[in-house]
TrEMBL record:
Principal location: membrane
Transmembrane helix recorded as keyword: yes
Subcellular location: Membrane
Entry membrane topology: Single-pass membrane protein
Superkingdom classification of source: Bacteria
Protein family (similarity comment): Belongs to the LemA family.
Organism: Bradyrhizobium manausense
Gene Ontology cellular-component annotations: membrane
Protein name: LemA family protein
C-alpha cells in the first residue's frame, strides 16, 4: 500500500512540475509576442513618416531618383515582412536606404535648411531611438524565453508542449556598419 502512495506522490509532483513549466513558458511566450508588437508599432510609425520625408527630399533632389526609389522599395518590403527574422532583414535594408536619403541633405544645403525636412529628420531620429529601445526589450524577452525552455524542469516538457527557440531581432549584416564610428566631413 505504501508503494502505491509513493508512486502517486511522484506522479503528482511530475504533473505539478509539468503544469508549472507550461504556465511559465506560456507567460514568457506572451511577453515575446507583446515585445514584438511594441517593435512593430514603432516600425509602423517610421513607415508612415517615410513618404513625407521622400516628398520633401523629392522637391529639392528630384534627380536623385534612384535613392528615392530605393527608400520606397525598402519601405514596401519592410511593411510586407512577417516574423522577427524577415522583419529584421527588411528593416535593415530600409535603415540603409534611409541613411542614404538623409545623407543627401549634405549635398543640398537648401534641403538641409528646410524646416519641414529638419522636423521630419528629427522625428525619424526620435523613432530610431524608440525602435532601438523596443528591439532591446524584444531581444531581452526572447533571451528569457529561450533560457526558460532550456532550463530544468521546463526543458523536459518544452518540446512536448510545442515550445521552440525564438529568433532575436538581429542587426544582421549591417552590424559592422552600425558598430563603425560615423565619418563626418566638412
Amino acid at each position: 500500500m505504501s508503494t502505491g502512495w509513493i508512486v502517486l506522490g511522484v506522479i503528482v509532483v511530475f504533473v505539478f512540475l509539468a503544469f508549472s513549466a507550461y504556465n511559465r513558458l506560456v507567460a514568457l511566450g506572451q511577453r515575446v509576442g507583446q515585445a514584438f508588437a511594441d517593435v512593430d508599432v514603432q516600425l509602423k510609425q517610421r513607415h508612415d513618416l517615410i513618404p513625407n520625408l521622400v516628398e520633401t527630399v523629392k522637391g529639392y533632389a528630384s534627380h536623385e531618383r534612384g535613392t528615392l526609389d530605393d527608400v520606397i522599395k525598402a519601405r514596401n518590403s519592410a511593411m510586407s515582412a512577417q516574423g522577427p527574422a524577415q522583419v529584421s532583414a527588411a528593416e535593415n535594408q530600409l535603415s540603409g536606404a534611409l541613411g542614404r536619403l538623409i545623407a543627401l541633405s549634405e549635398a543640398y544645403p537648401d534641403l538641409k535648411a528646410n524646416a519641414n525636412f529638419q522636423q521630419l529628420a528629427s522625428e525619424l531620429s526620435d523613432l530610431e531611438n524608440k525602435i532601438a529601445a523596443s528591439r532591446r526589450f524584444f531581444n531581452n524577452a526572447v533571451q528569457e524565453y529561450n533560457t526558460g525552455i532550456q532550463q530544468m524542469p521546463a526543458a523536459l516538457f518544452a518540446g512536448m508542449f510545442g515550445f521552440t527557440k525564438k529568433d532575436f531581432f538581429d542587426l544582421g549584416t549591417s552590424r559592422t556598419e552600425v558598430e563603425a564610428a560615423p565619418q563626418v566631413k566638412f
